[in-house]
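User: Can you recover a sequence for this backbone? Please restate the input before giving your answer.

Assistant: Of course. Working from this structure:
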C-alpha cells in the first residue's frame, strides 16, 4: 500500500538512502533538510522522480513542516532523522547540537500528531551514555557522567530526551517507534574531520595519508552496513501490529546493529584488506573525551518483532563501499 512519507534529514547519509528505498518501494516521499551536513548530490538519483519532493528548510520551524505537509495533504508516516551528528560537533557546538536535536524532535512529534501519522525516531546508542553493561538491550539503562567533564553527551543526552518525548507522545496516543542504528557505514558516510571513523579511514586512503586510530585502538564497535540499517527503518515504519502477533509496536525501540564486534585497530586492518593494501601505515592520535570503550547491541526486539537480520559482514561491506566509492588504491 502506497504511503505518504516525510523524511527529515533527507540529504544526509542515512536519510538519502532511506528516501531512495521508500520511493523504490512505491511510496510518495517528501524529504526536508537544511543542508548543514546533508548534501544535495546524495539525492541526485531522485531529481526527476515524480513521487519525490525535496524542501530545503529547518525542521524546527512549523512553517517548514506545514509546507511539507501541503504537498500531499499530510503524511501517513514520518521518519525523523534530522540531527547534528559527528563527534567533534558534540564538543565544539554543544548548544547547537542540543537545540537542533531536541527542537526538531519536538516539532516533528507535534506535526505527526496533527497529521495522525506514524512516527519513527532515529535515536542512537549514544542515548545510553556511558552504560558499561553489554550488550546494550532496548531497555538498558542510560548512564551519563557529570557535565563538568566534557560536552560529548550533548548528542547522547539529546537523543535520550528525544526518546522521553516520544514515549510521552505514545502515552497520548501517537503510534511512534524508536530505531537506534549502531555505527552505520556506507559510501556516503562523511570522512572529513567532522565525520565518522570508517569514512575518515577511507578518505585517508584515498588521500594517500596514514590511517588514524584514536588512543590505542582497543575500543570496540559493531559496524552496520547502510543497507541493513535502511531495512531496519523500513520495517519499523511499515509493519502494523497485526503482523507481529498483535503486540503493540508503539513505544517499542529497536537496536539495529551487527553482532560482529571489532576494535578500531582491527577495523584499520579490515580497511587495509578492503583496499588491497596491507602496507598502509597506521598512526595513533589523541581520542575524544568520553569515548566509549565498548558498544555492542542486543537486537532481540528487532529480530523477533520486525523480522530484521543483519545480512552484511564487515569484510564484505567494506569491500562493497570501497568499490562504490570508485577509488583505486
Amino acid at each position: 500500500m502506497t504511503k505518504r512519507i516525510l523524511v527529515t534529514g533527507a540529504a544526509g547519509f542515512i536519510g538519502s538512502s532511506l528516501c531512495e528505498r521508500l520511493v523504490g518501494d512505491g511510496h510518495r516521499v517528501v524529504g526536508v533538510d537544511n543542508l548543514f551536513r546533508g548534501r544535495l548530490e546524495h539525492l541526485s538519483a531522485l531529481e526527476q522522480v515524480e513521487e519525490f519532493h525535496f524542501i530545503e528548510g529547518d525542521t524546527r520551524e512549523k512553517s517548514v513542516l506545514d509546507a511539507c505537509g501541503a504537498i500531499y495533504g499530510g503524511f501517513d508516516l514520518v521518519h525523523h532523522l534530522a540531527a547534528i551528528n559527528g563527534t567533534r560537533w558534540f564538543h565544539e557546538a554543544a548548544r547547537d547540537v542540543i537545540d537542533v536535536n531536541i527542537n526538531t524532535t519536538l516539532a516533528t512529534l507535534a506535526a505527526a500528531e496533527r497529521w495522525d501519522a506514524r512516527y519513527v525516531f532515529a535515536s542512537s546508542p549514544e542515548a545510553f551514555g556511558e552504560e558499561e553493561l553489554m550488550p546494550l538491550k532496548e531497555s538498558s539503562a542510560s548512564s551519563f557522567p557529570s557535565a563538568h567533564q566534557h560536552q560529548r553527551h550533548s548528542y547522547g543526552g539529546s537523543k535520550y530526551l528525544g526518546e522521553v518525548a516520544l514515549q510521552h507522545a505514545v502515552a497520548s496516543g501517537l503510534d511512534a517507534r524508536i530505531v537506534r542504528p549502531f555505527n552505520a557505514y556506507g559510501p556516503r558516510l562523511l570522512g572529513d574531520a567532522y565525520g565518522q571513523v570508517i569514512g575518515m579511514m577511507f578518505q585517508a586512503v584515498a588521500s594517500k595519508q596514514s590511517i588514524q586510530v584514536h588512543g590505542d585502538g582497543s575500543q570496540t564497535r559493531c559496524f552496520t552496513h547502510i543497507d541493513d540499517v535502511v531495512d531496519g527503518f523500513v520495517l519499523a515504519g511499515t509493519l502494523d501490529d497485526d503482523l507481529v502477533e498483535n503486540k503493540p509496536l508503539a513505544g517499542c525501540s529497536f537496536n539495529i546493529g551487527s553482532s560482529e564486534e571489532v576494535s578500531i585497530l582491527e577495523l584499520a586492518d579490515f580497511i587495509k584488506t578492503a583496499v588491497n593494501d596491507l602496507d598502509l601505515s597506521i598512526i595513533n592520535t589523541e581520542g575524544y573525551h568520553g569515548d566509549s570503550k565498548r558498544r555492542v547491541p542486543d537486537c532481540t526486539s528487532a529480530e523477533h518483532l520486525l523480522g530484521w537480520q543483519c545480512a552484511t559482514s564487515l569484510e564484505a561491506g567494506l569491500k562493497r563501499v570501497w568499490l562504490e566509492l570508485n577509488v583505486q588504491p
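That completes the design. The first helix runs from residue 13 to 24.
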